[in-house]
Amino acid sequence: MESDKIIERWVPQFRKGLLEFIILLKLQQGDIYGYELAVEIKKLTSIEVAEGTLYPLLNRLKRDGLVTTEWKTAEIGSPRKYYEITSLGIETLAKMKSTWTQTHNSILNMVMQS
Amino acid sequence: MESDKIIERWVPQFRKGLLEFIILLKLQQGDIYGYELAVEIKKLTSIEVAEGTLYPLLNRLKRDGLVTTEWKTAEIGSPRKYYEITSLGIETLAKMKSTWTQTHNSILNMVMQS
DNA sequence: ATAATATACCTTGTATAGCTAGGTATGTTA
DNA sequence: TAACATACCTAGCTATACAAGGTATATTAT
After folding, report:
1. Helix/strand/coil percentages in chain B, nearest 5
2. What share of chain A is helix, strand, coil (3-state, %, to 5)?
3. Residue A49 has what DSSP assignment?
C-alpha cells in the first residue's frame, strides 16, 4: 500500500486519547465552547477535529466528571455551550501530562538511536 | 469517576497508533521476532503490549507491506518468526516521526502556557 | 518421572473511539 | 433571497487494544 494512504489511516488512531489530552489542556487555559475549541485546536496543532468526534468526546468528559457545562446566550448569535474543567479534570490532566512526558522520552531515545 | 480509573481507560486509547510507531522504530534498529519485541518495548517504554494486540498488529504491518517475515528455526527452542522493515516501512516511519514531532511541539506549547 | 514455568506463536469476541454523513437552527453576507 | 458561517447534535461504520482463550516446545523444580 502507498505510504501516504497508510499515514492517512494511522493518524486517526494516533489521535485516540491524545485528543482528550489536548482538549483538557486547552480547557485548563479557560472556559471555551465546542465550536471555538475545534477552531483553536486546528490553529494550535493543525489537527482537524470532526464534529462527530468532538461532541461525543465532550459528552464523555462531562459524564466522567472532568468538565461541567453551562449554556450562555448572547444578544446575538446562537446559544453556546461552555465547558469548564473540574478539579477532577485538573487532577486527571496532571497524570496524563506525566504519561505523555514519559512516553515521549522513551520514543525520543529510540529515534535518536536510529 | 475516580481519576486513576479514568487514566486506566485512557492509556489504551493513547497508545493506539503510537504502538505502530514504536514497533517500526524498533524494527529500524534491526530484525526481531514478536515475543522479543514485546519484552523490548516493555523495557524501553514501560508499555506492556498484550499478545492479542501485538500479533494482529504485526500481521497488519505485513499485509500493508511495511515489514516482511521469515521463520528461523534454531537448534534449540521454538521456531521464531522474524520481522524485517521494508523500504516502504522506512518511508512511512519517516512521516510518522514528522507527525509525532509536530504534535509534540504543539502540546509542549500548550503545557508551557498552562 | 512429572509438574510447573517460560518461551513463542495464534485467534475469537468485546468495548471503545474517530469519522462520515447526515440533521436542526440562527445569524450574516452577497 | 440565496448562500454561507456559526453552533449544536446523532446514527452507523470501521478499526484497534485488550481479555481470554488456545497450541507447542523447552527448561527447571519437585
Report:
1. 65, 10, 20
2. 65, 10, 20
3. -
Which pLDDT does position A3 carry in this prediction? 63
Nearest to A22 among B3, B15, B107 (CB): B107
Chain A window 33-72, residues with Cβ within 7 A of nucleic strand C: 49-53, 56-57, 60
Query: What would the pLDDT profile of B16-71 be if each residue is shown by its tens digit?
Result: 788 999 999 999 999 999 999 999 999 988 888 999 999 999 999 999 899 999 99
Kindly list the residues from chain A whose CB atom is less than 8 angstroms away from the CB atom of residue B20.
10, 13
Q: What is the pTM of this model?
A: 0.88
**From the CA of B78, how many Å to the C1' of C9?**
9
SS3 A32: strand
* Ranges of H-type helices in chain A: 3-15, 18-28, 34-45, 51-63, 87-113
